[in-house]
Amino acid sequence: MAKGRAFTRQALRDWGWGETETSEDTLLLVSELLTNASLHAHGCHELVLTADETALRIEVHDGTTALPVRHPAPRPGIPGGRGLYIVERLSDRWGTHAYESGKAVWAEVEASRLEYGMTAQR
């Protein structure tokens, strides 16, 4: 997960999106997607980041076709069951697509949030 976060942090900086609250949320989003792949899908096979003028898209590919299931409600004090809630909360859109040998879980963050997000308080 550390390599995925570092890769994402550098990509955000390269694209001029490195110093906003939304960029920090994006790093948490990547961590959650990678953690879910590790815990539920035998690990991440590929992390793909793509960006255009409208959105940043994060895709985590794994080797299982089993789609993620969002728990009805995480229970206070019990670990687990919050990953997809975090993904849903931090992204503007998310979803999955299965293919022959696995699936991708993806999330998108609007470019406008990354460009004009409030900078961190100093």
Automatic annotation (TrEMBL):
The keyword Iron does not apply. It comes from the Bacteria. GO terms for molecular function: ATP binding. InterPro entries: Anti-sigma-factor_SerPK, HATPase_C_sf, HATPase_dom. Keywords: ATP-binding, Kinase, Nucleotide-binding, Serine/threonine-protein kinase, Transferase. Residues 4-106 form the Histidine kinase/HSP90-like ATPase domain. This is ATP-binding protein.
